[in-house]
Design a protein that fits this description.
alpha+beta; two-stranded antiparallel ribbon; rod-shaped
Length: 191
């Protein structure tokens, strides 16, 4: 797609002495000329190589991202386990507190005061556990599925329609005084 006018790029073919060359130019330029948009001409082989390079970078980033998500999920699991252990300790302390009160070692006021502190700690533990569990479940489940799907590609040597349809959202071709720039947008951002 042309980054300036938003129209699709038009495929053009021409022959040189030795071979047939395929390139893409802005459809607005092709239909209406330079009054509407600039040419934005890019040869097919240059475009394909740019997409291939970017796609391989994307797949490599996906592998790094998978490792990072797995580490976060592991940390969340550890956090949940710590909170479960803390909760068990609080429950044990509450039982001992009741025994201490029943034996007449502490007054009713002290029992109520200490018990309310334990209950507040218990509530905080449960809240932290719930947050950690939600984060663990939502830790990019859609994103994780997408990333794991990308792993099947490893290192891509040749583009095909299936890979492009699965991974790319848009390819923008921009032209300025420095030349042609190709901006590739993926269906799922790794940023």
């Amino acid at each position: 797609e042309c980054a300036d006018c938003g129209r699709a790029m038009a495929k053009t073919t021409y022959k040189t002495k030795n071979r047939k060359v395929i390139s893409y130019i802005c459809r607005s330029y092709r239909a209406y000329g330079s009054d509407i948009c600039t040419r934005h001409g890019v040869k097919s082989e240059i475009l394909e190589q740019a997409v291939l390079n970017k796609l391989n970078e994307y797949v490599a980033k996906a592998n790094v991202e998978i490792d990072a998500i797995k580490a976060k999920v592991s940390t969340r699991g550890t956090d949940i386990k710590k909170q479960e252990e803390k909760l068990a300790i609080i429950k044990q302390r509450k039982r001992k507190l009741f025994e201490t009160y029943s034996d007449g070692i502490i007054s009713k006021e002290e029992y109520i005061d200490i018990k309310s502190n334990y209950e507040e700690e218990e509530k905080q533990c449960k809240a932290l556990m719930e947050v950690a569990k939600q984060e663990e479940q939502s830790q990019g489940s859609e994103k994780m599925a997408w990333l794991e799907h990308l792993q099947k590609y490893h290192s891509i040597e040749k583009l095909d329609r299936g890979i492009l349809a699965e991974t790319l959202e848009k390819i923008y071709v921009k032209e300025d005084s420095e030349g042609i720039h190709i901006d590739i947008r993926f269906k799922f951002s790794l940023e």
